Amino acid sequence: MLFLLAFTSTYARSNHSECNDINDCRRLFDIVWGCLVTIFLCIWVSVHPNIPPPCPEPPDGTGLRFLKWWLVDGNRPFLQRLKLMTVALIAPEFILGFAARQLQMARFLSQAQGYGLSLTHGFFIVMGGFVDGDGHPVVTQRQLRRNGVTEEIRAVHKSDIEDKSKGDLLSKGIALCQGLWFMAQCIARRAQHLPLTELEVATLAFTTISAITWILWLQKPLDVRGPLKLLVKTKSRSHHVGNPYPAGLTRIERFGFLFSNSYNRHEYDPFANTSVPAFWGLAESDFDKLPRWSSFSTIFAQFACAILIGGIHLTAWGAFFPSIVEMWLWRSSALMLTVLPIVFIVLSIPGGRWATHLRLVIIGIYSIARGIVLVLSLATLRLLPPAAFTDINWSIYVPHF
C-alpha cells in the first residue's frame, strides 16, 4: 500500500506547477509515512502495560498445540501491550484516563500515612508487580495491612524495580524527538500559511495526547514481564475465593470499567487470579482514606482529553476537502468531539434513567464522530491541494546576512 502511495504521489507531482523543485516538495508518500511513523512511535512509547499473566510452559511436540502456544500463550506480554496500543489508537482518551487513574492511586500509596512508599513502589503495586507467597497479586488494602507486607515491599529497593523496566533512554528519546519534530513541522507550516492535511491534524492530536500520557506514566516501569514475589502470605482463613476475572462480567460491564477507570472490590478477587486485569488501577472502594473527589478528577482528565482532541480537529475547519459532503462531515464530527464531552459531564450531575439513556446515546454519537474523522483523514488523501505538497522553507528561521 505504501509503495502504491509513493507511485501515485510521484505521478501527481508532475501536475502541480507550484512545486516543481524537488528540494521544495514533498510527496504523498512522505506525508503518509511521516504520520504513520509518528503515531506508531508515540503510542508504542506512551503505553505502559500492567504485569501480564504468567506464560504457561511450552507443550511437548511440534503440532498445533505448540503453534498455539508460540503464537498466543507464549506472547502474552506482547498481546497485552498490543491490546493497549489498539485502544490508544481508537480511543486515546481512555488510555489517558487510565494513566491518570494509576498515577493517582500510586501517589496515594506513596503519600498516605502507614505506607511510606516511593512513587515507583506505588506504581508497581498498582500494576500488579508484587505477589504474595501463594502467587496472588497484592493489590487490596487488606493485603497491604497484613503484618509484614508493607515492610517487605519497602525493603525492595527502588533501583531493583527500575532494573525490571525495559524502557531505555534511546527508544524514548527517538520517539520524543520524532514527536517534537512533527509538532515543529505543523507549527512551521501554519506560520508559513501552508495547509496541513487532515491526516496530519489527526496525527497532531495523537501526538499531543500520547505526550500527556507518557508524562503521567513517567515513573511507571515499562514492559515488566514478571512480578516480584514476597515471602508473606496475605490470604486469611475466612476468605471465600471468588471466580477468576472476568467470569460473571458482561462486555458492557467491562467497558464500563474501562470508561470510568474504576473497579469495585467485589468485582475482582486477587486470590482467584495470578495477575491483574489489563486496565486495572486498584479498587477505589477498597481504600477508605482515598479522597472522595479522586474518581471525579480522573474522569475530568479523560473528558478534558476528549475536548482537546476535538479542538485540535477543529483547527482544520477551513481546510481543503475533496467534496462539500466530506467538509461538513469533518466539521460536524469535530464539533461533536468538542461539545459532547461537555454535555456528558453536565448530564452526569442529575440522576434518573433518562439521563443514563441519554449518556449512552452521547457515547454512541461520539464513537461515530471519532470513526468519521479517522476515515476522512485517509479518504481526503486522494485529492490534496497543490500547496499541501510544498515543503517548509526552513531557511527563513536561520539567521543570515
Automatic annotation (TrEMBL):
It comes from the Eukaryota. PANTHER family: TRANSCRIPTION FACTOR DOMAIN-CONTAINING PROTEIN. Keywords: Membrane, Transmembrane, Transmembrane helix. The chain crosses the membrane at residues 28-47, 78-100, 201-218, 299-322, 328-349, 361-384. It comes from Mycena indigotica. This is Uncharacterized protein. Coiled coil: none annotated.
